[in-house]
Specification:
Number of strands: 10
Strand content: 5-15%
Structural class: alpha+beta
Oligomer: single chain
Low-confidence stretches: none
Radius of gyration: 38 Å
Length: 610
C-alpha cells in the first residue's frame, strides 16, 4: 500500500533557513522539496569531498599487503604514536605517489634487465678512452650468427653469452671498419646504478604502503566526516531548492511526511519560530511515495524500484510482484534440489556482513518457492522424482503428471496462471480508474474488464459443466451486450458517439492481438523449467556414462566433477533466466494491462542518518 502523505508549507526569514533545515534534519521525517543535483560551486565541492571520503574509507578497509614480498619490511615502519592532521589529504597524496612509484618501479626493473648483460663497469674509464680518441661500440647478436674469429680481426671483447645471444664491445681509434653487425645504443649506465634505482624506488614504495596501513585506524573518522558532509549537502540542496520571496528576505519550503506522523510533527513545528500550514497531499503536489507492507512484500520493494515507484494516484504493485514473481521464479527453476541450494545460499548471505546480506531473506523465499515448484514438477537435480523409488508416496500425490486436455500439464498450468495474472492486472486497472475518474468516466475500462474477466470465469464454469449450454448462451449474449455498450458507445461520455465507436474498434484490434501475445508469453514459464530439468538430466547421464558399470578410483572423481560443474553451471543459468523472465512478465504483461506507469519518486526524508 502507498502511505498517505501530509503536505507542509513553511514560511520563514531567509536568515533562519539553515537553522530550520537542521531542525528538520534532526526530526528525520520530512521530505523537503530540493534540487536533485549540485546547483553551484559550493555544492559541487561538497559532493566531491563526500566521494573522496567514501573512496578513501572503502579502499583503506579493503587494504591488505600481507602477500606483498616486502610486507615484513614496511610493517615495522608504522609509527602508532604518530598522528595525521588531515587523513584524507594524506591518503590522496600517498595513493597518488604510490601509483607513480609503481610505474617507475616497472620501468626500473626493465632497465635492470636491459643492463644485466653489460654488468658493472666504470663509465668514467669509457669517457677517458673517448678523450684519447678511442671509441667504444656496443653490439648484440644472435649466437648462431656470431663468429668467434672476429676477435682476431677486430679489437673485440665478448662480455656476455646467455646461450641465445652474445653481447660484445669493440674499442678502436678508427672512425669506421667493416664489422658485419649493427651497432646498438650504449647503456646509459652500468648494472649497479639500475639496481640502486630499483632499491631506492622500492624503499619509497615501502614508506608509502606503511603510511597507507597506518591510515586504516582513521577509517571511522573518515566515515564520520562522510556522514557529516552528506548531511550538510542534503541540507544545502534543500536550501538551494527553496523558493525565495520578498526580495530574498523570506523563504518558503514545501515538505511531505506520512499522515501517521502528523500529530508529532505538528507539535514540533509549533515549537519552531516558523509559520507553517498543513493539508492533505494530492496528486498535483507530486508527493513522495512510501510503501506500507509486511515482511514479505518489503523484500520485493527493490524490484518495484527497478521499474519505478507508482505515482500518488496509482496502486502499489509490490504485493502483486511479490506473489507472482515468487511463483514465476519457482516455476522457471522447477527443481527441488536447486531450491535447497538457494535456501542454503540465502542463509549464507543473511549471516554474512557484506552488502548482499539484506538480500538473504529474498533468496531464501525464492529457494522455498523453487523447492515447492520442483516437488510439484517432480524434478530433483534433473531426476524425475515421480519415477524414483526412494521418494515417499505421499509426496507423489502432490506431483502433476497426467495430461490436461491432452496437453502437457505444466504448459497448460503456465498459460492458466498467465490468464489469472492478466485478469488481476485488468481488475486493478478498473479499480484505479473508478477511484480516479469515477464510475461514469471508467465505463470503457469496466466494459473490457467485464468482457475479459467475465469471459474467463464463464469459460471455466462451462468447462466444468456446471451450467446448462442454453443458460451459458444467454449469459454470453448479456455479457457481450453490456460490455459492448461500455467499449463502443460509453468509453467517453463527453465525446461524440461516432468517435467512441471508432476508438472502440481500434482498442478492440489492439486488445485482441495484444492479449493473445501476452497470454502465449507465459509459456516461457513452462519452457524454462523444462529446459533446466532436461539440462540437469543431461549432466546426470554424462556422469553415469563416465562412471560406467564397473566404477573405479578414476571414474568416481570424474563423475563427481561432471555433476558438480554441470549442476553449478545449470543452476547459474537457471537463476539468470528465472530472474529476467518473471521480471519481464511483471514489468511488461502485468504493468501494460494494469495501466501502471511508475512515475513516482521515493520518500526520502531529510535526516542526519545518511
Amino acid at each position: 500500500m502507498i502511505s498517505k502523505m501530509t503536505k507542509y508549507s513553511f514560511i520563514l526569514l531567509s536568515d533562519e533557513a539553515k537553522i530550520f533545515l537542521k531542525k528538520i534534519q534532526a526530526l528525520g521525517l520530512v521530505d523537503i522539496t530540493r534540487s536533485a543535483k549540485p546547483v553551484d560551486e559550493h555544492s559541487a565541492a561538497l559532493l566531491s569531498s563526500i566521494e573522496a571520503y567514501k573512496k578513501a574509507s572503502t579502499k583503506l578497509e579493503s587494504l591488505d599487503f600481507s602477500k606483498d614480498p616486502d610486507y615484513g619490511k614496511f610493517v615495522v615502519e608504522i609509527d602508532a604514536d604518530k598522528t595525521v592532521q588531515d587523513a584524507l589529504q594524506t591518503f590522496l597524496e600517498t595513493e597518488s605517489r604510490l601509483a607513480a612509484l609503481q610505474a617507475e618501479f616497472a620501468a626500473a626493473l626493465k632497465e635492470v634487465e636491459d643492463r644485466r648483460a653489460w654488468g658493472r663497469f666504470d663509465a668514467s674509464a669509457l669517457h677517458g678512452l673517448a678523450e684519447y680518441g678511442w671509441k667504444t661500440r656496443f653490439y648484440c647478436i644472435n649466437k648462431k650468427k656470431y663468429d668467434p674469429a672476429w676477435a682476431t680481426l677486430y679489437p673485440l671483447q665478448e662480455v656476455f653469452d646467455d646461450g641465445n645471444n652474445v653481447w660484445f664491445v669493440t674499442v678502436s681509434d678508427a672512425p669506421d671498419y667493416s664489422l658485419p653487425v649493427d651497432e646498438i645504443p650504449a647503456p646509459e649506465g652500468d648494472l649497479k646504478e639500475a639496481e640502486d634505482r630499483v632499491a631506492e624506488i622500492r624503499a619509497e614504495m615501502i614508506t608509502c604502503k606503511s603510511v597507507l596501513l597506518s591510515l586504516k585506524e582513521y577509517v571511522p573518522e573518515m566515515k564520520k566526516a562522510y556522514a557529516k558532509e552528506a548531511a550538510d549537502l542534503q541540507r544545502y540542496l534543500s536550501d538551494a531548492g527553496a523558493e525565495k520571496a520578498a526580495e530574498g528576505k523570506l523563504t518558503t519550503f514545501v515538505g511531505f511526511a506520512p499522515v501517521e506522523n502528523e500529530a508529532h510533527l505538528s507539535a514540533e513545528f509549533d515549537r519552531m519560530n516558523v509559520l507553517w500550514f498543513k493539508e492533505e497531499a494530492v496528486e498535483e503536489d507530486d508527493p513522495p511515495i512510501q510503501f506500507k507492507g509486511n515482511w514479505f512484500t518489503k523484500m520485493f520493494t527493490v524490484l518495484t524500484d527497478m521499474y519505478g515507484r507508482p505515482a500518488y494516484n496509482e496502486f502499489d504493485p509490490t504485493p502483486f510482484i511479490s506473489f507472482f514473481f515468487t511463483l514465476f521464479f519457482g516455476m522457471c527453476m522447477g527443481d527441488a534440489g536447486y531450491g535447497i541450494l538457494l535456501v542454503l545460499i540465502g542463509f549464507y548471505l543473511k549471516r554474512s556482513k557484506s552488502e548482499m546480506s539484506e538480500y538473504g531473506p529474498l533468496v531464501i523465499a525464492l529457494g522455498v518457492a523453487t523447492m515447492l515448484a520442483g516437488t510439484v514438477m517432480h524434478t530433483f537435480f534433473g531426476i524425475n522424482t515421480y519415477e524414483a523409488a526412494w521418494v515417499p508416496g505421499f509426496l507423489k500425490k502432490f506431483m502433476i503428471t497426467k495430461p490436461i486436455a491432452g496437453m502437457d500439464p505444466q504448459m497448460v498450468i503456465s498459460v492458466l496462471i498467465g490468464i489469472v495474472h492478466i485478469c488481476v492486472a485488468l481488475l486493478m486497472k478498473a479499480i484505479v480508474s473508478v477511484r480516479n475518474n469515477g464510475f461514469l468516466g471508467s465505463l470503457g475500462t469496466l466494459g473490457w474488464t467485464l468482457l475479459i474477466i467475465g469471459g474467463v470465469i464463464l469459460a471455466g464454469i462451462s468447462f466444468m459443466g456446471v451450467l446448462d449450454s442454453a443458460v451459458t448462451k444467454w449469459i454470453v449474449i448479456c455479457l457481450g451486450i453490456v460490455s459492448a455498450l461500455g467499449i463502443f458507445l460509453l468509453n467517453d461520455i463527453r465525446r461524440n458517439p461516432l468517435s467512441n465507436i471508432g476508438t472502440g474498434l481500434w482498442e478492440t484490434y489492439n486488445t485482441a492481438t495484444g492479449l493473445l501475445g501476452d497470454t502465449l508469453s507465459y509459456i516461457r514459464l513452462y519452457a524454462l523449467g523444462l529446459a533446466g530439468g532436461m539440462l540437469g538430466n543431461a549432466f546426470n547421464l554424462l556422469g553415469g556414462i563416465v562412471l560406467g558399470e564397473n566404477p573405479n578410483f578414476i571414474s568416481w572423481p570424474l563423475c563427481i566433477l561432471i555433476l558438480v560443474f554441470g549442476h553449478a553451471l545449470n543452476l547459474a543459468m537457471c537463476c539468470l533466466g528465472a530472474f529476467v523472465h518473471p521480471l519481464r512478465l511483471n514489468f511488461l504483461e502485468f504493468f501494460k494491462n494494469s495501466g501502471y506507469e511508475g512515475t513516482g519518486r521515493a520518500y526520502d526524508p531529510l535526516t542526519l542518518n545518511k
